[in-house]
Amino acid sequence: MKELQDLILPEEGLKLLSPYVGDVDLSKYDLKIPFEQVESSDGNGIKSRYELIKKEAMEQNLTLEDVMKKIAGARGHFMVVGTPEQIADTMQYWYEQGAADGFNIMPPLLPTQLELFVDKVVPILQQRGLAQTEYAAGYFERKVWPGKRLATR
């Protein structure tokens, strides 16, 4: 996670955070202030997400910089960081609680983190019966949409 956060330029990170607070110019703030001191606009912000961000920031005493790095690194999505077992545990928990029936894996650093996920996490999920161990031959499109869908040339 730190590796990713170290790549975030503050001016770009603040631009990514801005829509969540109502397109407020965040560059006027010191990055070290508590996030709760950042004004929000009643305008075009993503209000439901902003409320979640603000609540978490207050509970964890996060600064504007902390929140900016968190949002810029994961683009506002839920991010799991940990050992392969911890990641598999989290995915299993969400699945078993009915909170997810599938996952979009969006590794922030390619190809390294995708390879780590495939090589380390997927085998654990397979051992637990939560991921396929074999895949049927053929085109993905034909598995999802049976029958001929493309025009003959």
How do the helices and strands line up, and which of them pair or pack?
Blueprint: H1 2-5, H2 10-17, H3 47-60, H4 64-74, H5 84-96, H6 112-127, H7 140-144
**Element order, helices and strands?**
HHHHHHH
Q: Structural class, from helix and strand content?
A: mainly alpha
Overall number of structural domains? 2
Radius of gyration: 20 Å
Low-confidence stretches: none
Overall pLDDT metric: 86
Q: Could you give the distance between the termini?
A: 48 Å
Shape: globular
**Estimated helix fraction:** 40-55%
Q: Sketch the major β-sheet.
A: none
Please count the helical segments: 7
The proportion of residues in beta strands is: under 5%
How many beta-strand runs? 0
Can you describe this structure?
- The chain is mainly α and 153 residues long.
- It has two domains: 2-74, no CATH class; 82-153, no CATH class.
- Helix content is 46%, strand content 0%.
- The protein has seven helices and no strands.
- The chain has helices at 2-5, 10-17, 47-60, 64-74, 84-96, 112-127, 140-144.
- Helix 5 (84-96) crosses helix 6.
- The radius of gyration is 20 Å and the shape is globular.
- The chain starts with a helix and ends in a 9-residue tail after the last helix.
- The model has no long low-confidence stretch (mean pLDDT 86).
- One of its GO terms (molecular function) is nitrilotriacetate monooxygenase activity.
- InterPro entries: Diverse_substr_monoxygenases, Luciferase-like_sf.
- This is Monooxygenase.
